[in-house]
Design brief:
Elements lengths: L12 E2 L2 E3 L2 E3 L4 E6 L6 E7 L2 H19 L3 H17 L1 H12 L3 H18 L2 H4 L4 E6 L2 E9 L2 E5 L7 H12 L3 E4 L6 H13 L7 E3 L4 H9 L3 E7 L2 H13 L3 E5 L4 E5 L5 H13 L9 E7 L3 H13 L19 H17 L2 E4 L18 E4 L6 H4 L6 E7 L2 H9 L3 E2 L1 E5 L3 H10 L4 E4 L15 E2 L2 E3 L6 H6 L1 E9 L3
Parallel strand pairs: 1-5, 8-9, 8-11, 9-10, 11-12, 13-14, 13-19, 14-17, 16-17, 19-20
Antiparallel strand pairs: 2-3, 4-5, 6-7, 7-23, 12-22, 15-16, 18-21
Length: 493
């Protein structure tokens, strides 16, 4: 039975899996997923059986020998065709992201575009995978290095970027000569499934990528099966730590990107108008559900009062509603359960004694939609030890901490258990340089709210935001998906 991952539609449909050499239906239990903007049922997702996940691994393992030996030019031609198809289907993919995740169409289009950039980077693999040579390391002896694929790799992406993050994973793994098992997030399975269908339309040989769905049971099979050589994960820090510890204990190479509590430091000499615009986008874009979202602002000295006032006024102007509406600035959060979790944190902030400057619980959507919404929420006079300042909320909640000096602000930032991204807003080059040098985070913005690197540079989280040695995309990812082999040779006359 062949089942296709259909395009966006209004009808309820069952998400397919790809094991063997075709799309089919799972025998596992099923769960109904809802559109976060309306609560309406959209998708039936299967939770694959252990046997189905093992079959998907077996399929990818059988396909590896042939795909590994496929000339690199042939592999890249598939990726070039794939990039063209993604461009042609960009609007469809963006609407699918919005249907599943709830983010605005503008945000969705941007995220798909960033994913396509990763495919473009993978298309350059013939020059990126080249080794090195050195003759006469000893009399009559030459040496060279090669980069060779690992085998079966697995990808476990998150719900917040259902197109972009998988595209950080499998295109580069395939370009390097690996095969791949993709397990999309069980909250947004359709986007990843559709992308793999387009990949096969681009000419990928059967079985090189397989698709399974599910939760922890499916993940544990991928983490423990000896045929899986590498695992790439993006999600919360507790799960990232579990994935790293479990997979590495089973001899696998692992990159596990975790959560964040990103701080922005605002200096008194900043361009206030530009700073507020950047912070509003960084804090409330995608409803705060991204690992580079700014969730804490450290206002230094006299910057605090005008900044708090301007942020509140800007948040008041935001229109919250369905992501498909052109006027919408911020969509819903992913689910009813996650909405309740965010509301609990807002109540906690009040209990801890923070000043609630703007209450996102008092919300009326501009389009009368009734999904899982939380409005932009701002706390002032937050203390660094408060839980709302320490823990990842993953929603549209911004905490403002006040500091007297840059040194004090850096101390606040650096005490965080996370180290994903940070930013400073200033007109001073000396301040920016000191901040960039001393701050303990992997990605730093200077007057840039979301310092997300392009696909040819590493996504470099630190501390509790990353478990592993080699980061996602860029040259780090090429090293992650390949082994280095050194060949030493002597040819006697």
């Amino acid at each position: 039975m062949t089942v296709h991952a259909r395009e966006v539609g209004t009808e309820l449909y069952t998400c397919p899996i790809y094991i063997g050499t075709s799309w089919t239906t799972s025998r596992g239990r099923t769960v109904v997923l809802e559109n976060p903007a309306s609560g309406a049922a959209t998708t039936i997702i299967p939770y694959c059986t252990v046997e189905e996940v093992e079959a998907a691994i077996e399929t990818a393992d059988r396909a590896f020998a042939s795909w590994r030996d496929t000339p690199v030019g042939t592999r890249t031609r598939v990726l070039f065709c794939y990039r063209k198809l993604l461009e042609e289907h960009l609007e469809e993919m963006a609407r699918l992201v919005t249907l599943e995740n709830g983010k605005t169409l503008e945000d969705a289009r941007g995220s798909v575009r960033r994913g396509i950039e990763a495919v473009e980077f993978a298309c350059g693999i013939p020059s990126l995978m080249k080794g090195e040579t050195l003759e006469n390391i000893a009399a009559g002896i030459d040496t060279c290095t090669l980069r060779q694929p690992l085998g079966v790799c697995a990808g476990i992406p998150p719900f917040n970027f259902p197109a972009m993050v998988p595209l950080w994973m499998f295109p580069l793994a395939l370009a390097c000569g690996n095969t791949f098992v993709l397990k999309p997030s069980d909250k947004v399975p359709r986007t990843g499934t559709r992308m793999v269908e387009l990949l096969y339309e681009a000419g990928l040989p059967a079985g090189v990528v397989t698709v399974v769905h599910g939760g922890k049971e499916a993940v544990d099979v991928l983490l423990r099966d000896p045929r899986v050589k590498a695992v790439s994960f993006v999600g919360s820090s507790p799960v990232a730590k579990y994935v790293y510890e479990t997979a590495s204990a089973n001899g696998k190479r692992v990159q596990a990107l975790g959560g964040a509590k990103n701080h922005a430091v605002v200096m008194p000499d900043c361009d206030l108008k530009a700073t507020v615009k950047a912070l509003i986008g960084a804090a409330f874009g995608t409803a705060g559900e991204r690992c580079l979202a700014t969730s804490v602002v450290v206002a230094v000295g006299e910057a605090a009062e005008p900044l708090v006032r301007a942020l509140r006024e800007a948040a008041d102007q935001m229109k919250v509603g369905a992501g498909t509406e052109k006027e919408t600035d911020m969509g819903p959060v992913i689910s009813r359960a996650h909405r309740e979790r965010i509301l609990q944190y807002i109540a906690l902030g009040e209990k801890e004694g923070a000043q609630l400057v703007r209450d996102g619980r008092q919300l009326k959507t501009h389009d009368s939609s009734t999904g899982y919404y939380v409005g932009p929420t701002i706390f002032d006079r937050v203390q660094p030890a408060m839980r709302i300042a320490q823990e990842e909320i993953f929603g549209p909640v911004l905490s403002i901490i006040r500091a007297d000096t840059l040194a004090e602000a850096l101390g606040v930032v650096n005490q965080s258990a996370y180290g994903n991204a940070t930013a400073v807003y200033t007109r001073s080059g000396a301040t920016a340089r000191e901040f960039a040098t001393r701050v303990q985070a992997g990605m730093v913005g200077i007057n840039v709210g979301v310092p997300a690197p392009p696909a040819f540079l590493p996504f470099a989280g630190w501390k509790g935001s990353f478990y592993g040695d080699l980061h996602a995309h860029g040259k780090d990812a090429i090293r992650f998906y390949t082994e280095t082999k050194v060949i030493t040779s002597r040819w006697n006359p």
